[in-house]
Each structure stands twice: as structure tokens, then as C-alpha cells.
Design brief:
The chain has about 575 residues and is α+β, with helices and mostly antiparallel strands. About 15% of the residues lie in helices and about 35% in strands. The protein has a four-stranded mixed sheet, with helices on one face. Helix 3 crosses helix 4, helix 4 crosses helix 5 and helix 5 packs parallel to helix 7. The longest helix has 21 residues.
């Protein structure tokens, strides 16, 4: 069986370290039937993986990882477990069952969970797509493994015991971190979940990162008290079972309210509803990020691994034709289609750029919208950045408008499109540019309808009657402006309806009103606005720890908001 990617392993350093950089493939250990890989027999390790996916990682698809045990392979006797992709897409974890079962019979039952979670994290992080000999890669997998074990009910002491059982060296060795570094990473992962749980009423201790022991710390507003008594013990179950029991499950009941996103997410730029799910687009340490949030349960699944590496930061999402269109904002632009029914992603970047990369030369794709028949894609480049994509024909069609149009935002009334951005020119002196594209693709300029001194438009939304646009003045480029606009009618400036110090970072419209969100005096801000009525503040409905809202979506009588907490971690929350 061919190996399509490098392997990443975890070692018990009771044996001699292997030569780093060797590229041995374990794909040959997969059973063969008729020249093709047979489905491996379900094992106890598969049960652990299922438990980790459903209850630790909270990823609902459990058929993407397969475990293969082998006690005779000499390298597995040293490496214990290895993550590897075989046949281009099949994700395997090869492990030494004699060592794993030994952990089960001893008092280190959580160690087997930690080891398998660590290897799963390598798959999810994309580490198996390219060979890494980097201690930081290993530490991040440790951090994620600790998060998952915490959600399963493991205490910090139990997680540290699992890390201790790995017998890591005192100092970094080759591409592997030291023992104290691994403990610190595990503490960081535990703290992320404990902090989240404490926000919703739990009383879990937090621990100091950076020492090899466990030093409790108190941070303002976390309501920490001495650690809860726990009786969870994976060793109290029937022989051969790898599922932890005891009091692991009650931890899941705390997973309500604000959901924290992975630490490698740096921003949430766009939200898109598909049924009871919200898809998120943003950017992280390694480029674009993409995820799924379930409104009722609050569960979040990081789907960033589906995006090619590297890929543009995700700037815009739109849904139509049973596909989520994903736009990426970096020089040249990126585009992709994701199917919510099959969980498949198709990179459409080559087709997007077929008209020439200078269309998205400066800022890539900045906006996407769907009018019931086709997507309109806009961005900024050396000429007008505007293309139509038809789900029916699966083709892009360039719309070359004159004069030049840099498109920052697109909204639709379900029939036509409002496009807004800027014309040619440097910095704040860029002339305003707003236009209307009919169902027959006829363009009408609305720039003359804008209020005086209007400059670049950055955001727009439609409430069923009017469009709300947010921009800056055309003189300094620093003063925020808001206006309501209806095609072929003069715009109504509504800037003074909002606090002067408000920085608007997200808007959405529905049923005759708008939600306006952002940051006001270093605190998260959310308000409901309807022309002719008093502005209604909804900021008190946001999590107390929120410092900014960067994306907002109205879903019937519910609101979904994403933003940044005071600690710098991203969150998403649903409320009515």
C-alpha cells in the first residue's frame, strides 16, 4: 500500500531514540484483500478513538481514523504509536498493542488515551501531510490531547501522570520536546477547557504553565476554587475495554453557552447558516481556517484540515446550490466549494484565477453573496474584481465594470446584488464606489446617492427593505460613517444614531431591522437598529468576557455572534 504522507509518532523513551528523518511507511501493516486495503478489525483502540472524537474533540464524523495494532514491528516497539496517511486519504494510527494493553492493566489508563489523542491531533493539524521534525508540532499535539482528555473528565493530575508515563527526556532531543515542555503544553490544553467550563458555572482550578509541577493559580473572574473530587479511573472497567468510566460524562453537560475556538484560530471573519449549523471562516497561524458550529449543542468542529496548505485566510462565506462558497483574501485570491452533506471540499482557485491573477492582485477575494441562482465574487486587484459563479454550469464569468471597482462587500435582496467598495486612488483619497447589479447583470452606479464626504465602503447588509452600509469618510479615512441606501434613492446617513467611539466590525439584517456589532471602549458591543426607532443595546446578552464581536448572524429569533474574549481567545455563542 503506498504511503502518501510523512508519519508522525510518539515515543516512550525507555528505548533508544530512532534516527530522525527516516521515512519508514507502516502502510504495509494494513490487511490486504485482492490488492486493496481491507477494513481493519474493530479494536479497543478504535473505541478510544470513537470516544475521543465524539466526546473529547467533539467531532461527529468517526469514520476518518482507523487503528492498526502490531506487536512485532521493531520500530513500533520504540515508537508505540504512529500517525500516517495511506492511499492518499485514509488516516491510520499504527500502535503497539502490548504497550497500550500494559498501560490499561496498570494505573496509567489515561496514558493510552493521551497517546492516541496525540496521534489524532497530528492528523487533524495536518502534520501528516508533510514531514515535521519540530518540537513545537509535538507540543501542539500534546496541548490538543490534554483538551480532549479534560472534556472526558480527566483531572490535571491524571493528565500529568499520562505525560509522565511517556518518560520524555530532560532536554529537547532532536525533534522531540523535553518533559517539562510537554507538561506545560498539557497544562495549557487543560486550562483552555477549564476556563471555558468556569465561564458556565464550573469551579475548576487553573494551573501555572511553565513548571514541571502543578501550581494552582487564580485569575480574575474565573471563580476558581480547590479542584473537584473525581473518581474517574480508566482502570476500573472490564479487562480489554479502553473506555474510561467513573465520573467522566458529567463534564459534557457544562459545554453550553459560549464555545471557545482552537487557539490557532486568530480571527473569525464570516458566518454562514446552513440548517441548524453555522459555518465559520477566518484565519490562523497556518493560513485559512474553516469550521462548523452546531447552534443547539454548542459543539464546534474544526474543518481547517480540509483546506489545502497553504491557503488564503478565509474572508467570506455564502451558501447556495447545496454548496458553501469559501472566499480567500490574500494576493491572487482563493476560492473553494464545501458540501455540507458530504463534507467534501473542492479547491476552485485555478478556475477563479483563469481570467488572470491581476483581478485579485492586491487583496484577493473580499466578498461573496448568493442571489438564489448564482454567486457574485468580489475583491481588489489591478482592474475591477468581480466574477459570477454559476453552480449549474460550474463556471466563472468575469464582469468588467468601468470605472475601476475594488469590491469590499456584496449583499443581495435575493434577486439583485448591491456591491460596494472603492474606486482607484491611494489611501483615504480613494473615491467612493457603490453599484447595483440586476438579475440580467446590468450595472447601475449608486455612488452619486451617497452622503457627502463618503469614502470607502467596508460592510453591507440587507434587512428585507433597505441596505445598511458602513464605511469611512473620504477625507481622512479615519471617521466611521453609516448610511441606509435603497436603489435609485438618495442614501440616508445614520452615523449619529450610534456611539461616536464605536468601531463596527460586523452587521447583519433581517425582517426590517439590523444588528450592528463591534467594539466600544474595549468592550464587545451589539445593538439592534431600525430606522425611525431608538437604538436598542444588546451588549448585555454577550458573554461578560467578550471584548469584541467580529461576525454576527440573525437566525430566526436567535442571534449567533463570534468574537474575541479578554484573554485573546476566539468564541462563538448563540442566544435569543
Amino acid at each position: 500500500m503506498p504511503c502518501s504522507a510523512a508519519l508522525v509518532s510518539i515515543l516512550l523513551l525507555v528505548a533508544t531514540l530512532p534516527v530522525f528523518g527516516q521515512q519508514k511507511s507502516y502502510c504495509g501493516l494494513v490487511p490486504q484483500v485482492g490488492g486493496m486495503g481491507a477494513k481493519p478489525t474493530h479494536t479497543g483502540a478504535d473505541d478510544v478513538i470513537d470516544d475521543l472524537l465524539k466526546n473529547g474533540a467533539q467531532i461527529m464524523t468517526t469514520n476518518k481514523f482507523r487503528a492498526i495494532g502490531n506487536s512485532t514491528d521493531q520500530d513500533l516497539k520504540q515508537q508505540v504509536a504512529v500517525a500516517e496517511i495511506c492511499n492518499a486519504t485514509d488516516r491510520y494510527i499504527f500502535y503497539n498493542p502490548s504497550i497500550i494493553e500494559g498501560m490499561q492493566k496498570s494505573s496509567t489508563g489515561w496514558a493510552q488515551y493521551f497517546i492516541l489523542a496525540h496521534e489524532m491531533a497530528h492528523h487533524i493539524n495536518g502534520d501528516t501531510l508533510v514531514h515535521h521534525e519540530d518540537a513545537n508540532v509535538e507540543l501542539y499535539a500534546d496541548e490538543i490531547a490534554a483538551e480532549w482528555l479534560t472534556r472526558l473528565g480527566a483531572s490535571m493530575l491524571e493528565i500529568k501522570s499520562a505525560v509522565d508515563s511517556l518518560k520524555a527526556p530532560e532536554f529537547r532531543t532532536g525533534g522531540y520536546p523535553s518533559h517539562c515542555e510537554r507538561v506545560a503544553a498539557a497544562v495549557r490544553g487543560y486550562n483552555i477547557v477549564a476556563y471555558d467550563y468556569n465561564l458556565h458555572g464550573a469551579k475548576m482550578d487553573l494551573f501555572q504553565e511553565g513548571d514541571c509541577g502543578l501550581t494552582k493559580v487564580k485569575l480574575p473572574g474565573l471563580n476558581t476554587i480547590p479542584e473537584r473530587e473525581r473518581t474517574s479511573s480508566p482502570t476500573s472497567q472490564a479487562p480489554g475495554s479502553l473506555e474510561p468510566r467513573g465520573q467522566s460524562s458529567p463534564a459534557h453537560a457544562l459545554r453550553t453557552g459560549m464555545t471557545l475556538l482552537p487557539l490557532d484560530w486568530m480571527s473569525v471573519n464570516s458566518l454562514q447558516q446552513v440548517g441548524g449549523e453555522i459555518f465559520l471562516g477566518g484565519h490562523g497561524n497556518s493560513g485559512g481556517t474553516f469550521g462548523k458550529y452546531e447552534m443547539e449543542s454548542g459543539k464546534f468542529s474544526d474543518l481547517s484540515y480540509l483546506l489545502p496548505k497553504p491557503w488564503c485566510p478565509v474572508s467570506a462565506l455564502a451558501y447556495g446550490g447545496d454548496q458553501v462558497f469559501i472566499g480567500g483574501a490574500s494576493r491572487g485570491g482563493c476560492a473553494g466549494l464545501f458540501s455540507p452533506t458530504s463534507d467534501r471540499f473542492q479547491d476552485m482557485t485555478p478556475q477563479l484565477r483563469a481570467q488572470s491573477s491581476d483581478i485579485y492582485y492586491y487583496g484577493g477575494v473580499g466578498a461573496v453573496s448568493f442571489n438564489g441562482r448564482e454567486f457574485l465574487v468580489g475583491g481588489s486587484g489591478k482592474r475591477t474584481s468581480l466574477e459570477l459563479y454559476s453552480p449549474a454550469t460550474r463556471r466563472f464569468t468575469y464582469l468588467g465594470l468601468a470605472p475601476y471597482f475594488a469590491v469590499n462587500t456584496i449583499s443581495s435582496d435575493g434577486n439583485s446584488f448591491l456591491i460596494a467598495g472603492a474606486g482607484p486612488g491611494p489611501g483615504p483619497q480613494q473615491p467612493p464606489a457603490v453599484g447595483w447589479i440586476s438579475p440580467t447583470h446590468t450595472f447601475t452606479s449608486l455612488t452619486a446617492m451617497l452622503p457627502g464626504n463618503w469614502g470607502t465602503t467596508r460592510r453591507s447588509a440587507y434587512d428585507g427593505n433597505d441596505f445598511l452600509i458602513v464605511g469611512v469618510d473620504g477625507i481622512t479615512g479615519a471617521n466611521q460613517m453609516l448610511a441606509l441606501i435603497t436603489p435609485l434613492k438618495p442614501a440616508t446617513e445614520v452615523t449619529n444614531s450610534f456611539p461616536a467611539a464605536l468601531n463596527v466590525h460586523a452587521i447583519d439584517g433581517h425582517d426590517g431591522y439590523f444588528l450592528v456589532a463591534g467594539q466600544l471602549e474595549q468592550k464587545a458591543y451589539l445593538a439592534r437598529y431600525r430606522l425611525g426607532t431608538r437604538l436598542t443595546s444588546l451588549s448585555e446578552l454577550l458573554p461578560e468576557e467578550a471584548s469584541d464581536v467580529t461576525a454576527v448572524k440573525i437566525i430566526g429569533n436567535k442571534v449567533v455572534a463570534a468574537g474575541v474574549s479578554r484573554t485573546g481567545q476566539l468564541f462563538i455563542v448563540t442566544f435569543q
